[in-house]
Amino acid sequence: MQDHVSAGRLAGLAVQIARRGEVAFSGQVGNRDAEAGSPVTPDTIWRIYSMTKPVTSLAALMLYEEGAFQLDQPLADFLPEFANARVWQGDGHPLTATEPAHRAITIHDLMTHQAGLVYGDAGGNELERALAASGLDLERGFVTMAEAVEALARFPLGFQPGSRWFYGLSTDVLGRMIEVLSGKSLGVFLHQRIFAPLGMIDTGFAVSKDKVGRLATLYDHAQEGFVRAADQDSCIAPVTLESGGGGLVSTMADYQRFATMLLHRGAFPGGHLLGRKTFDLMVSNHMGGDLASRGQGHFSETTFEGIGFGLGVSVMLDPTRARITGSPGEFAWGGMASTAFWVDPVEEMTVILMTQLVPSSAYTLRRQLRVLSYAALIGDR
Predict the structure, then answer these.
(1) C-alpha–C-alpha distance, residues 69 and 151, integer Å
(2) How far apart are CA 39 and CA 51, in angstroms?
(3) Is 357 helix (H, G, I), strand (E, B) or coil?
(4) Looking at the whole model, is its pTM more than 0.85?
(5) For the segment 140-169, what is each residue's pLDDT rounded down to a tens digit?
(6) How many CA atoms lie within 13 A of 365 on its CB side?
(7) Can you tell me the distance from the alpha carbon of 84 to that of 290, in angstroms, rounded to the nearest whole number?
(8) Helices 53-65 and 252-263: crossing angle, nearest 10°?
(9) Measuring CA to CA, how many Å separate 35 from each of 84, 180, 292, 345?
């Protein structure tokens, strides 16, 4: 950790490893704001970006357990703007060159990134560029997710629903579906149903004025190390665009509570968020193989060989194919600013990395941390 800071790769970072109910390691190095010299502290608030996705997916499964929907149910039953979806014919074709979707988008498609919904990307293909130009990189242009999802539904899908795995805006749409089903904003639903029960007091879509001093500065990767990102304020209250795919901020202590609940299959002291069978479904592989076999070659927050995908989390299938230490059945995800977590039920272990460097592919932080964490397991279990 110190080497990454001393070498100028990261301004600061925090790592926490818990095993068998005890915190085995918790460390903070460097600064949450390099220019001000403000150190990383245990209560530093981090933008967790796509580590929001497992939270939103869990929230949806809580509604699933209450009978609000079935996994194979059409999304258009709840968001009718996705009825009669059309699919872009791909590279070399104009966006007007579309064909009807072979079948309806299902909730299962959303939760497994098989819906045909892609991210806006100014450097991507024609569809991705058009989405980005319309603000569907979710960095500007929309006041609420209701507006953003309605705009997204006017674009063609990037591929036929169910035909492949492709990382994109599916969990943002899932978050909007939660709002429709619950009659509450996503932020209120998450607070009432997940954050308050778990005691996650610093997690949400907005950092209040009294907590801004604890918010880590966001940095962009640069050849000379890192530079301060232009957008520092989008998570400071008030926030109206509540992205279920990437909008949350959290602390190490808060996300540890979430990860510990996951390790205990949805249970926490005093109650449970999911039944254990629903939880097991969440962290099972739904791909029929690994992500590489599903045609994945695009950026995501995981590698593809030997890794499957469940309902909102990646799932380790085979460490030898993934070419990294680990346990079959562990599940994980990461965020755009190089944050990451994983839960290993075999070793009864959770690992969390917090930092603030975009993009997450700048360094092999996650793989380094995996090797170091598992190297500490010696002798008998």
Answers:
(1) 24
(2) 23
(3) strand
(4) yes
(5) 679 999 999 999 999 999 999 999 999 999
(6) 33
(7) 30
(8) 40
(9) 51, 43, 41, 40
